[in-house]
Structure formats: C-alpha cells, structure tokens
Amino acid sequence: MMHMTFYWSTKATLLFDSWKTDSWASYIPSLLACLIVSIFYQLLENRRIRLKLLASGKPFPDQIEAPLLRRTFAGSGAKLGVRVAGAVLFGLSSAIGYFLMLAVMSFNGGVFIAIVVGLAVGYLLFRSDGEDSVMVDSSCACA
C-alpha cells in the first residue's frame, strides 16, 4: 500500500519494487544513498553552470575556476561540443532531480530529510561560492 501522507518507519519502498527497506540495516544505507545522490545532483548543477559560463564567453567570477575546461575554442565545432556537453549535463541533472522528487514522493520522513539535507550540503559545498554575482537558470524545481 502506498502512503499518501508522511510516515516515520524503517519500512519504505524507493523508486523500484526491488528497493525496499524493512530494517535499520537496509534503511540507513538507503538514506545514505539518497543523501549522496542529492549532493551529486548539486555537483552536476555546479558543473553545468560553469560550462554555461564558459560557453557564453563571460568572464568567470573570482571563485569559479574550470581547470579541465579551457577558453581556447577554435571554431564552431568546439562550441558545438560545449553545447552538447551542456545538454548532456542538463539531461543527467534533470533525470537525477526527478528521481529525487520521486523518492520524496515515497512520503517517508527519513527519506525526505536525507534528500533535503543532501541538497543543502551539496549547495554549501558546490554552489554557494559567489553564485549571487552570476544569474543562472535552474533546471529543476528542487535546485
């Protein structure tokens, strides 16, 4: 039976019928997985924003560095590559965002808290440095 209100229990089904928890031994790793995926979501958003800034040719704020991405774009082929990479990051980030939303829709209180804490920690680690000086769009409502 699917819950339609928040509940507090170690028994939860997340995303798939095969991902069920029935004890603390299975519930805690599931919460950790939700936390880690939430942090990874913020990392992907950070990389997508940096790639977007790089592709636009705008100067980076002092806090933003992209050591693996250089501004030496020779022609339209390189710009197309950056656009494709941005689209791939956007798609991956959106998919993870929707999976997180669906996990929250399990209505398990622990899963909800793990995801919100993971998003907050990920934001603190990857997106809170100088982002207010850069106006960017968001791919997902939970960003």
Could you explain the architecture of this structure?
There is one protein chain. The chain has 143 residues and is mainly α. It has a domain of 100 residues. The protein contains three helices and two strands. Strands 1-2 form a two-stranded antiparallel ribbon. A hairpin with a 6-residue loop joins strand 1 and strand 2.
Major sheet: arrangement of strands: 1-2
Uncertain runs are none
Query: Given the C-alpha coordinates, what overall shape results?
Result: elongated
Quote the beta fraction: under 5%
**How would a crystallographer describe the biggest sheet?**
2 strands, antiparallel
Q: Span between N and C termini?
A: 30 Å
Order of helices and strands: EEHHH
Descriptive key words:
single chain; mainly alpha; 143 residues
Describe the protein's topology:
Blueprint: E1 12-13, E2 20-21, H1 24-56, H2 76-104, H3 109-127
Antiparallel strand pairs: 1-2
Helix pairs in contact: 1-2, 1-3
What's the short version?
With 143 residues, the protein is mainly α. The protein has helices at 24-56, 76-104, 109-127, and strands at 12-13, 20-21.
